[in-house]
Write a sequence for this structure.
């Protein structure tokens, strides 16, 4: 009993320290655990009161403003009038009106004053290092380039890199005097490519300034009458909130009695006095919140906005690289694109409205301790595989609880550290102890035999590996399970070529052909795993994934060039070749067939690589690969060509075309890839007309392109007869 307790405590302590250390340095619980909970939970219904009016691409074209935000100001006054006509509660601009515009500011300010419910954003500038390179110049106009810090002496010594400062730039005086209120809203620079998970409630570096969603939330409560009976001053809420936060006492000195305050007062007190950031409860991918086009609202085409809170800001409907003020969230991916800053602002306001942010039930370290103790207890009570099975069952129940709490009320239980760090380490410790106990038991058995039956001592195996004679090393050496890359090739029109030549001619042709085909594989350290008729299979194993991917891509590209040269010189017949690449688990081994044996690569990875190779004939391409091949290959140019369900497979697979090596790819080819991406997004979203126009424009401008021709034909067919259920997946019926 004491031994079990000691082992339980040891497992809990080791897994807690290791899990906490990994989470401290890698933030695995946030980057993996929290993001996974969002993806498992899926889309959540957003409050109906929140509406985003998007300054989108369609509005840019219809209003003739382009991407220059300064040209929109002439339209804002009529937009406000349209919204007031419908009786909206608040209008919030996620725009910084820093630079005066004499032609528009008068009318704009008059519309704001008449509405009486307009809030705008202050611009935030952040000092990055010393007195150099702060963010915000572009957003806060050319008139605010003065340095944060002015030196009193002429010393050239730079300021410390640890000096960090922020300041806000308010709107022009005419607009600032007209609006209901204004406050800053700050997000991490999207150039950092970081995922936004938290939102600022207060910017303490800006003298405890509240952010715009908090200010808007109080004004909304005031306009709906919910603040009746709550003691508030007549000053603007942005100012009142600063004073309230400065009066907050440390936790140890708080003397307020919750039972003497209303529930709303207590909520406001918690928002004001607790953490300056909150984890946002995102409702889903971009455009999950109700979103209306700026031009549609401006032209009076949108109804049902009475009592709504309107957020106006830049928000594209299609993801295009290079756009600013767009960010990643746990829901964004290559298909959805990034989310607009105005949507994040609206999300934070909606969370305040629901009083629901992502919160932890208790310190996560405590959960690590509890999980380690439970896992250790089960693994010590149930030894070996039974203990592992029971611990897996417990982990499944724990994940179910975590998902349920997260979905129900936004409560966050850690899952990444317990499942990915603590549980495997606990298994390892348990198996090591089981092995140690087995060896100790064997030692006692040997000691007993020596004393009681010394004549049998020579018949006892000398090592545990000899206890099961049927599993000898010779029997286990016939196969090997690996994770690697598979390259499959096939000759287009091989049957026709073979029918036109004698067997001996085909033997000579294929003999030369496979010499050409195998050289790139061997030169890039690949292995020829199989050659059957007109197909060859090569694999890459025992190297880092990035190294294998690069080697396989380079081999495939060199194969294409080598085959083209071969076809130009051969006199017997041309052998155009298609190539498919895939990565996954395989078994390399020897198959016995009668008296002989053959070495093969076997597994679903091999089959999928062959299916990918076959997809070339539909898309008019030469080299296709599954999506992971694009990861970390900066020297290889590739383009996504869509999401497909291959024959015999239930799960869809994202494919990309291997175009070439970066410096060797022409400018025209790069333009084709860029234009194709735009059309592909439209096609996957079911916008058949827009997709057809995009692909037809590409073909007319740049000539024949296989994937563009494929999708153009498919889009035209879907225009006439759309699929009953469309999820963006193209189904291949053949190999």
């Amino acid at each position: 009993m004491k031994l079990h307790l000691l082992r339980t405590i040891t497992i809990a302590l080791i897994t807690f320290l290791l899990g906490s250390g990994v989470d401290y340095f890698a933030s695995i619980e946030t980057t993996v655990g929290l993001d996974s909970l969002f993806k498992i939970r899926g889309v959540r219904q957003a409050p109906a009161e929140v509406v985003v009016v998007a300054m989108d691409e369609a509005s840019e074209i219809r209003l003739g403003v382009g991407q220059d935000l300064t040209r929109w100001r002439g339209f804002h006054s009529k937009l406000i009038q349209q919204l007031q006509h419908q009786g909206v509660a608040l209008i919030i601009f996620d725009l910084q009106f820093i630079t005066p515009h004499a032609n528009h500011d008068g009318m704009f300010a008059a519309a704001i004053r008449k509405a009486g419910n307009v809030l705008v954003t202050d611009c935030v500038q952040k000092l990055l290092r010393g007195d150099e390179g702060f963010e915000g110049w572009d957003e806060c106009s050319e008139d605010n380039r003065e340095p944060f810090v002015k030196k009193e002496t002429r010393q050239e010594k730079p300021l410390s890199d640890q000096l960090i400062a922020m300041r806000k730039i308010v709107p022009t005086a005419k607009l600032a005097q007209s609006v209901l209120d204004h406050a800053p809203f700050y997000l991490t620079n999207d150039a950092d490519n970081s995922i936004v998970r938290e939102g600022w409630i207060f910017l303490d570096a800006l003298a405890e300034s509240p952010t715009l969603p908090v200010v808007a939330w109080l004004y909304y409560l005031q306009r709906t009458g919910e603040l009746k009976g709550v003691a508030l001053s007549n000053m603007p809420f942005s100012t009142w909130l600063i004073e309230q936060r400065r009066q907050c006492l440390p936790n140890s000195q708080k003397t307020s009695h919750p039972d003497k305050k209303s529930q709303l007062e207590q909520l406001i007190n918690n928002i004001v006095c607790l953490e300056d950031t909150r984890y946002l409860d995102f409702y889903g991918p971009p455009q999950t919140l109700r979103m209306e086009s700026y031009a549609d609202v401006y032209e009076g085409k949108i109804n049902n906005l009475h009592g709504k809170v309107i957020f106006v800001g830049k928000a594209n409907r299609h993801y295009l690289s290079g756009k600013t003020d767009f960010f990643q969230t746990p829901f964004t991916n290559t298909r959805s694109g990034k989310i607009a800053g105005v949507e994040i602002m609206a999300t934070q306001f909606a969370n305040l409205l629901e009083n629901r942010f992502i919160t932890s039930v208790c310190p996560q370290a405590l959960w690590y301790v509890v999980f380690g103790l439970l896992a250790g207890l089960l693994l010590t009570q149930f030894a070996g595989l039974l203990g592992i099975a029971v611990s897996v069952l417990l982990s499944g129940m724990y994940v179910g609880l975590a998902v349920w709490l997260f979905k129900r009320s936004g409560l966050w239980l850690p899952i990444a550290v317990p499942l990915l760090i603590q549980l495997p380490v606990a298994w390892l410790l348990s198996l090591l102890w089981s092995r140690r106990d087995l060896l100790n038991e064997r030692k006692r058995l040997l000691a007993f035999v020596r004393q009681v039956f010394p004549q049998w001592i020579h018949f006892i195996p000398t090592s545990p590996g000899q206890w099961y004679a049927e599993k000898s090393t010779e029997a286990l050496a016939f196969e090997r399970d690996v994770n690697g890359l598979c390259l499959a090739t096939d000759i287009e029109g091989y049957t026709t070529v073979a029918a036109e030549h004698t067997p001996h001619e085909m033997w000579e042709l294929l003999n030369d052909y496979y010499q050409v085909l195998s050289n790139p594989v061997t030169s890039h350290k690949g292995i020829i795993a199989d050659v059957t008729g007109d197909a060859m299979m090569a694999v890459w194993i025992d190297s880092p994934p990035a190294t294998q991917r690069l080697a396989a891509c380079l081999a495939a590209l060199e194969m294409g060039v080598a085959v083209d040269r071969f076809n130009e010189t051969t006199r017997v017949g041309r052998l155009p070749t298609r190539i498919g690449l895939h990565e996954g688990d395989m078994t390399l081994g020897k198959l016995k067939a009668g008296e002989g044996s053959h070495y093969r690569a076997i597994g679903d990875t091999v089959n999928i690589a062959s299916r990918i190779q076959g997809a070339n004939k539909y898309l008019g391409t030469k080299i296709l690969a599954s999506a992971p091949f694009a990861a970390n290959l900066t020297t290889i140019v590739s383009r996504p060509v869509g999401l497909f369900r291959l024959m015999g497979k239930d799960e869809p697979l994202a494919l990309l075309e291997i175009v070439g090596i970066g410096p060797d790819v022409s400018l025209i080819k790069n333009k084709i890839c860029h234009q194709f991406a735009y059309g592909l997004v439209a096609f996957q979203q079911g916008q058949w007309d827009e997709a057809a126009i995009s692909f037809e424009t590409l073909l007319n401008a740049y000539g024949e392109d296989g994937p563009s021709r494929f999708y153009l034909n498919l889009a035209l067919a879907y225009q006439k007869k759309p699929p009953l259920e469309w999820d963006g997946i193209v189904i291949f019926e053949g190999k």
Notes: The first helix runs from residue 2 to 26.
